[in-house]
Amino acid sequence: MRLLDQDALERSSVAANCAMNRERRLPGYNRELGLNVIEFLSSRAASGTPVRWLDLCCGTANALFETAASFPSEIEITGVDLVDFFAGPPRPPRVRLLTASVATWEPEGTFDLITSVHGLHYVGDKLGVIANAARWLAPDGLFVANFDARSIRREDGSPAGPPLVRTLRAEGLSYDSRNKRISCRGWREIRMPYTFVGSDDQAGPNYTGQPAVNSHYARAVDSSGR
C-alpha cells in the first residue's frame, strides 16, 4: 500500500475534491452538523464581544456569506480551504477567507464555534486536526464536524476500531457513529496515543458515496507493551 505524506496528499485530486461541500449553503450546514448555526451563534452574542466562527474546509463559503448577511450582531467569520474556490465578490466585510492547509494552518485567538462539513474526509492527519480544533475553542465553545471513525487505520491498514472511539471519548470528545459526527464542548488539550504515518487516497468511496482518504497511524504502547 502506498501512503502519502501531507504534501503529496494535498496534490491529490481526491484531497481537492470539488464535489463535496463546495456549493453547500446554510440549511445544508444545519442538517449535516445537527446544529442551527445562526441560533447557536446568536446565543453567544450576549457577551458584548464579536462572536467568532471558524469553518474548516469551507468550500465556496456560501454558508458563511449567508450567515454574515443575516446575523444581527457583531461577528467574525473565518473560512479555510485548501482550494481557492470561494464564491465571487462582493464579500461581506465580516468574512475572512484563507487558502491554506487545515493540517498546518494556525489561527489567532479562539472561537465560539468551529465546524467542518465533510472536510475531514479529505484530510491526512484527521486526529491532529481534531485535536487542534479542540484547543482553538473558547472555554465554552463548540467544535462539530463530520467524521467517519472507519477512516482511521492502523499501519497495516486494518481499522483502528473500538479502541480509537474509546480514546476519543476518554479525551472528552463525543462521537456519534450513526450520524458520523464528532464534537467537543469547551477548550481542551487532547493527547492521543497515535502518530500519523501517511494517507491512502485510493481508499475508495466512504459513506457519502464520494472517494475519500484513509488516515494511517502508529499506536504508541505503554510500559506493559499494550
UniProtKB/TrEMBL annotation:
GO function terms (MF aspect)? methyltransferase activity
Task: Provide an example Pfam family for this protein.
Answer: Methyltransf_23
Coiled coil feature spans? none
**Key words of the record:** Methyltransferase, Transferase
Organism annotation = Acrocarpospora pleiomorpha
Q: What domain of life does the UniProt record list for this protein's source?
A: Bacteria
**Alphabetical GO biological process terms:** methylation
Q: What is this protein called?
A: Methyltransferase
